[in-house]
Amino acid sequence: MERMESMEPISAYYTTAYPEIQPDSTYGSRETTESQAMTPPPPTYDEELVHKTILVGDSGVGKTSLLVQFDQGKFIPGSFSATVGIGFTIWDTAGQERFRSVTHAYYRDAHALLLLYDITSKSSFDNIRAWLTEIHEYAQSNVVIMLLGNKADMSSDRAIRRDEGERLAREYSVPFMETSAKTGVNVDLAFTAVAKELKHRAIQHPSEPKFQIHEYIEAQKEKSGCCSYF
Ligand SMILES: Nc1nc2c(ncn2[C@@H]2O[C@H](COP(=O)(O)OP(=O)(O)OP(=O)(O)O)[C@@H](O)[C@H]2O)c(=O)[nH]1
């Protein structure tokens, strides 16, 4: 397990909340189909829906930078220490075996995992399979996973082509995008897509079409013309 030991299971952790989410008006419709009559309607949420999302990936791939970019809309160069004052709790277990059980406990608790590699680092990409193995072992089976190839602004140092990321994501049936914590490209989209998926799962009515996270991401990418300069 030499490779796993070098992975440094460092996780940034944040929660997303949806204040006063109301179900679609169709839920209150008087017309009740047979399937609706048999299936109890989803609960009405007057309170916030809180979801836990963890950022995972090798040390230095940019987890904290991504979180800071999402939270503050800016890039702060240089490495962060384990905890930064941005109102989120950052968990940094620094590969120490004695903290493994803590990390695993957080997997179990997570609703979503943003799994990062660095497009300039082949080893961080190669370790993704090991991360996925660990995730599948410890996380809930329905956890939302998204693969992110970060540092997309560093095209001259690129070690992993975008289609390699896409292929790996397809193999594991997870959505994928390249991000840059530096330029901010796709950062909001990554977090928003995961949040939307979780929200729809929570308030989804069985008779409604499912939210398609892949389609949402592709549509948003096209809208923003985000990736044309990679
Ligand atoms: N050019 C560029 N540099 C980045 C990007 N994201 C992070 N970095 C840099 O990469 C280094 C590591 O970033 P961190 O955010 O500390 O990475 P981390 O994954 O949280 O690292 P650990 O805390 O060790 O797990 C820092 O020097 C960042 O400034 C990016 O998108 N583009």
From TrEMBL:
Protein name per Swiss-Prot or TrEMBL: RAB37, member RAS onco family
GN (gene name): RAB37
Disordered: annotated segments: 21-44
Lipoprotein is among the record's keywords: yes
Name of a matching Pfam family: Ras
SUPFAM superfamilies: P-loop containing nucleoside triphosphate hydrolases
A molecular function GO annotation: GTPase activity
Family: Belongs to the small GTPase superfamily. Rab family.
Compositionally biased tracts (Polar residues): 23-38
Cross-referenced InterPro entries: P-loop_NTPase, Small_GTP-bd, Small_GTPase
Keywords: GTP-binding, Lipoprotein, Nucleotide-binding
Cited CDD domains: Rab26 (cd04112)
Organism expressing this protein natively: Oreochromis niloticus
